[in-house]
Design a protein that fits this description.
Four Helix Bundle (Hemerythrin (Met), subunit A), HAMP_dom, about 90% helix, transducer, mainly alpha, MCPsignal_dom, transmembrane helix, about 0% strand, Methyl-accepting chemotaxis sensory transducer with TarH sensor
Length: about 525
């Protein structure tokens, strides 16, 4: 390319130099024409006019008596001074010639000046010499000296005009020669430039055709393994190297994209299966939570019955003081009631224990959900990184990865919320178990008291007060147990609601995983078009 730009530049420089030389030569001819042949004629012809016309006019007036000698002398002397000034200027400007080149001209001027001074010489007291000369003598002297100088000047002017014509002819000859040289040089230059352009065009077209054919092959076959030849040190070889580098980078990118797409597809399938398992588990937990809520409500009803029975036992104990005859029957009825209470308390303890076990199982399921959420978040982060590497082509995939990461964060937050609620439920279930244990101890004590009352029926009146106190304690305990059962039922309903939300989140995760799987399949279908 340097040669391509250098050769025309050399031709342009040569053309400029030749044009400068031509302009300088013509300028030299013009200066020679003016300085040596035209400018000097101004002073010569000025001196000729002064001597042949201006100075003769006062002489003729003086000879005819129309001017005085003094005025004539002043006018003629003034004209002669101007003529000498012109001649000195001419002598300073005229070019160097042979030794006798200006001799005749100088001699004629000197003779004319001498003749005028001779004419102005005094002839008597108040007359000039020219006054006393006869007409024929004056005319002969004018013809010989003044007109002779004019003839010499005219010959010199013609000589200068002829010399100027020679300079003009030289300039015209130079112009014709230069025109011919320009025509021949232009033809040669055009021929050389055409040959040079043909050679350069061939050297450029061949590698460009190779690059064009390579690009068409890549566009047709999507084969990124093709490479352009890199021979040479010109711009085309540089472009070929850059194209090969770009193809290598694209090939590596497609390979990385292939691996990442396969991994993403596998992880998306795994997340989809895990989400389905979570949804199934949450549905099972929801069913179990419904059963547990039903059992807690039944336990609450049983505790309410125990409270009513305890109140009835207190009434019966009051009646026992007045109806000692029926005391035995009341004691037996009380023993049966207390035994039923013990059975209900045992049932409540079993239900609370079952509630603790189920809450532990839910905690395990939540641990699995949390791990799956963390794995999903990690996979979404990897997908976002791969999308960032893909650039503009992975923008849609990056949006899907962000949505999966957001869904994973929401799942993790919901899991932690459920975990906190389950821990509260476990604490309340533990409190209920302790209350059940206390109630069971109290029922055992009531049974013991009933047995003692049966054995010591005689002391029933003294034991009525203690039994009423125990019955009041049972009433209070059952009331507390009823409140705990109600709270437990509410917590179980809340847990059921959270499990439903978890199931919904699992369904959303499964749907997102399915969409992610579809995106991964579309991405795989895209890169599989390329051969890397």
């Amino acid at each position: 390319m340097l040669l391509l730009g250098g050769i025309p530049l050399v031709f342009i420089v040569l053309l400029l130099l030749s044009s400068f030389w031509v302009a300088s030569t013509k300028d030299r001819y013009f200066h020679q024409l003016y300085d040596e042949h035209l400018a000097i004629l101004t002073d010569v012809m000025g001196a000729q006019q002064l001597l042949q016309q201006s100075a003769l006019a006062p002489i003729r007036q003086y000879r005819t008596g129309w001017a005085s000698a003094e005025a004539t002398d002043q006018q003629v002397q003034s004209y002669l001074a101007q003529a000498e000034q012109h001649w000195r200027a001419f002598s300073a400007m005229r070019p160097e010639l042979a030794e006798d080149g200006y001799a005749e001209l100088d001699h004629g001027f000197a003779a004319a000046m001498a003749k005028y001074r001779e004419w102005l010489s005094p002839a008597g007291t108040d007359a000039l010499l020219v006054r006393i000369l006869n007409e024929s003598t004056v005319n002969n002297e004018i013809e010989q000296h003044i007109s002779g100088f004019g003839a010499v000047v005219d010959a010199f002017v013609q000589q200068q005009i002829a010399a100027a014509a020679l300079v003009r002819d030289d300039a015209d000859l130079l112009t014709r020669r230069l025109s011919l040289a320009y025509l021949l040089g232009g033809a040669v230059l055009l021929l050389l430039m055409s040959l040079f352009i043909w050679v350069i065009q061939g050297s450029i077209r061949k590698p460009l055709d190779g690059l064009s054919q390579l690009l068409r092959q890549i566009a047709a076959s999507s084969d990124l393994r093709l490479r352009a030849p890199e021979q040479g040190q010109d711009e085309i070889s540089t472009a070929a190297k850059a194209l090969n580098t770009m193809l290598s980078h694209m090939q590596q990118l497609i390979q990385d994209l292939s691996q990442g797409s396969n991994q993403l597809n596998a992880q998306a399938l795994q997340v989809q299966h895990s989400s389905s398992d979570i949804r199934t588990g949450t549905q099972t937990q929801a069913s179990q939570a419904d059963l547990l809520a039903t059992a807690v409500e039944q336990m609450s009803m049983a505790i309410r019955q125990v409270a009513e029975l305890a109140r009835s036992g207190a009434d019966k104990a009051t009646e026992a003081g007045a109806l000692s005859d029926t005391g035995q029957q009341v004691v037996q009825h009380s023993m049966q009631t207390i035994q039923q209470l013990a059975s209900q308390v045992n049932l409540g303890s079993e239900v609370v224990l079952k509630l603790q076990q189920d809450s532990n199982e839910i905690s395990k399921v939540l641990d699995v959900i949390r791990k799956i959420s963390e794995q999903t978040n990690l996979l979404a982060l990897n997908a976002a990184i791969e999308a960032a590497r893909a650039g503009e082509a992975g923008r849609g995939f990056s949006v899907v990865a962000d949505e999966v990461r957001t869904l994973s964060a929401n799942t993790h937050q919901a899991t932690e919320s459920i975990r906190s609620m389950i821990e509260q439920l476990q604490q309340q279930a533990s409190s209920a178990a302790q209350a059940m244990a206390t109630a069971r101890q109290q029922t055992d004590l009531s049974v013991s008291l009933a047995e003692r009352s049966e054995q010591h029926f005689d002391d029933i009146r003294q034991a009525i007060a203690g039994m009423m106190a125990v019955t009041q304690q049972i009433f209070t305990a059952t009331d507390e147990q009823q409140q705990v059962a109600i709270s437990t039922a509410e917590n179980i309903h809340q847990l059921n609601h959270e499990i439903a939300q978890l199931s919904t989140a699992a369904s959303d995760a499964a749907m997102a995983s399915s969409e992610l799987n579809q995106q991964a399949e579309q991405l795989a279908a895209g890169w599989q078009q390329f051969k890397a």
